[in-house]
Amino acid sequence: MSLGTDTPTDPQLSSADLAERVRQLDDADLARVDAWWRANNYLTVGQIYLQANPLLREPLRADHIKPRLLGHWGTSPGLSFLYAHLSRLIRITGQEAIYLAGPGHGGPALVAAGWLEGTYSEIYPRVGQDETGLHRLFRQFSAPGGIPSHVSVTTPGSIHEGGELGYVLVHAFGAVMDNPDLLALAVVGDGEAETGPLEGAWKGISFLNPARDGAVLPVLHLNGAKISGPTVLARKDPAEVRDLFSGHGYDVIEVEGSDLPGMHYGFAEALATAWASIRRIQESARNGSWDGSRPRWPMIVLRTPKGWTGPEVVDGTQVAGTYRAHQVPLSGVKDNPDHLAQLERWMRSYRPDELFDADGVPNADVQAANPRGDLRMSASPHANGGRLTRDLDLPDFRQYAIDVTSPAGSRAESTRKLGELMRDIYSRNPDRFRLFSPDETNSNRLGAVFEVSDRAWGEGVLPSDVSLSRDGRVMEVLSEHNCHGWLEGYTLTGRHGLFATYEAFAMVSASQTIQHSKWLEEANHLSWRAEVPSLNVLLTSTAWRNDHNGFSHQGPGLIQTVLTQRGDVSRIYLPPDANCLLSVADHCFRSRSYVNLIVIDKQPQLQYLTIDEAIEHCTRGASIWQWAGNDDGTSDPDIVLACAGDVVTMETVAAAQILTERLPHFRTRVVNVVDLMTLPRHKDHPHGMEATLFRELFTDHVDVVFTFHGFPGAIHQVVHGRPDADRFHVRGFIEEGTTTTPFDMTVKNKASRYHLVIDALNNARRTPPGASELRAWCEAQLDKHTEYVVEHLEDMPEVRDWVLPARA
């Protein structure tokens, strides 16, 4: 039997035997791999240039060329080359693998790969494996009504678009965690290697456990140039590059050149060596002979010319191997006959007549190069993670509830209860749940998880270390990019988790949140993309209670970022207490294909609702807290005090108490919002409440003083279109902060209880007797506060120790 046809793999063969088969590329398999690669290169060029004549059945004419040429050729032949050889390894070994293209602008290469494997036509029957389908494949690329030029969500086999550079390794490492049979090949472009997130991502091997996790095989593809100049690593002495990655802990394997078939032989040898090393590491860890030290995982440095196999020289200027090959190396083909002729020679150099039959179907050699069924990388269920998703085995969150006997009468650290819930989720789901946090698990009061799992760690462990071991599954690394990206890869391959970070530093990875939202938004329009577990983000150590760290740590900007994403994906929750947090968390852990943003502080805070009240409140998304005001519901109140967020809820309830005690005939209504997305109209967001409910809460005409955790503009944005939206007067974070006391943060941002009382009086439907005196008292309290905090370095006792007196 010829090498490369052993699918399924002979179970009697050892990993060493299989690696040897991969290493020895015979003539028959060389022909298959090279034919597949040439076919893929041909399809890549065709997608960039052609709108007609897909198989060059006639001489190429200007009207066969697209009116606008878009795409990236330079990296594509290298991506195709890697894909061809990894497919061969899969055919021989039966290895489950996914392919992540860091240079995602090489999209046409990965689209072509899916088409050659047949997956594309299975998913998109209109783009069949024939000449008509090929015509549609070419026309749709980077065109109106078609597909993007990146390895987007529309590309089968993709969990990583690669449009925003820097995240290929973090997605790959996340994909293989708790996924022991998966190999993730991650192609790192040499331009991408210059980004900060990618530079930090190499540390992923310090967190893998080869007994439990799969493997990442990074391929650093150095083709010398980015869009308009050289890349740093490509210009470095190869010995320096080798030392750099050896220092990171990798066993570096190098392949360089452009000659054929020599490069095929060389890369087959390199891939066999890498795979054999991975299998030795995993088998050692799984048969009990591993000593627990961090393995030296392999990586490959592949050096090929940019634009390999494309035009060498255009108009007397060197193109191949330079930045000029990055996008469209022949840009004047529609108007320049010489360019048109050169394009035709280039495409015919792949010998398409040998690769496709008279009907446009790939020939036997090309098809024989593909793995079968789900082993095709474009068909891998790991790249369509909803197919593999299993629901979490969740405990009843009610059992973690805080006993609330009187609203706002006691304090507790709410996130500590979430930690207890996640502790038991870890125990009940040892292969499909993880917490990701940048060195902040204990700080954010989630440390109960360490009762059942250590931190994951592959480096040395000292006797003084706490909750740190190779068997740990709590993910901590001081990088928001790593934590966010690991969780993305984890959820996109079908597992569940939570990313917890300090609120201000969530902006470090905000662009990742945006990109993931966009992925989910587009996936919602693809019936073949199964829903995946939601991306759950917990923001704590928030702006209002980062009084000790100061202004640099005070920023609620991620709320605004998530708010701008489409309503079919974005969800924002601001639970005011522990029981609401438990209810929200349970909902988020059960949900699919959302970005759930949960914002609550870690410090001791007032507790308002019993667990049953919290469930009802969170189910509604917003409620009138009748116990907090003196509005009996028989007629419209004089003012509505609304709030969303824990600290501002306390200030609102305190303001309502002041109004109720000092002006008992002034009717005050308190509305708390836990689901921010209930405020837009239902036609603007799926969670938006109907007009009737909105009217029940806020009336149609009474002014609303709304105190919000984030920037005030967010509330104005979400209530746009509601009756008389100008009656909403919003207090929130206005970029005022410093190292100060907790209450002084609310004072500086004009969101304190005293400011809210003054706002209520200034905007009420009527001016009650005693209003002037109460305003003066509030202003005096603010003056007293200013003097007190400077002298005593803490808040006034009547603020610091305030609780709502129990009502008879």
Automatic annotation (TrEMBL):
Region (Disordered): 369-390
One Pfam short name: XFP_C
Listed InterPro entries: THDP-binding, Transketo_C/PFOR_II, Xul5P/Fru6P_PKetolase, Xul5P/Fru6P_PKetolase_C, Xul5P/Fru6P_PKetolase_CS, Xul5P/Fru6P_PKetolase_N, Xul5P/Fru6P_PKetolase_ThDP_BS
Keyword Lyase: yes
GO biological process: carbohydrate metabolic process
Keyword annotations from UniProtKB, A to Z: Lyase, Thiamine pyrophosphate
Keyword Transferase carried by entry: no
Domain of life: Bacteria
Cofactor names: thiamine diphosphate
GO molecular function: aldehyde-lyase activity; magnesium ion binding
Residues in Xylulose 5-phosphate/Fructose 6-phosphate phosphoketolase C-terminal domain copies: 602-803
UniProt domain Xylulose 5-phosphate/Fructose 6-phosphate phosphoketolase N-terminal: residue ranges: 25-387
UniProt family annotation: Belongs to the XFP family.
Protein name: Xylulose-5-phosphate/fructose-6-phosphate phosphoketolase
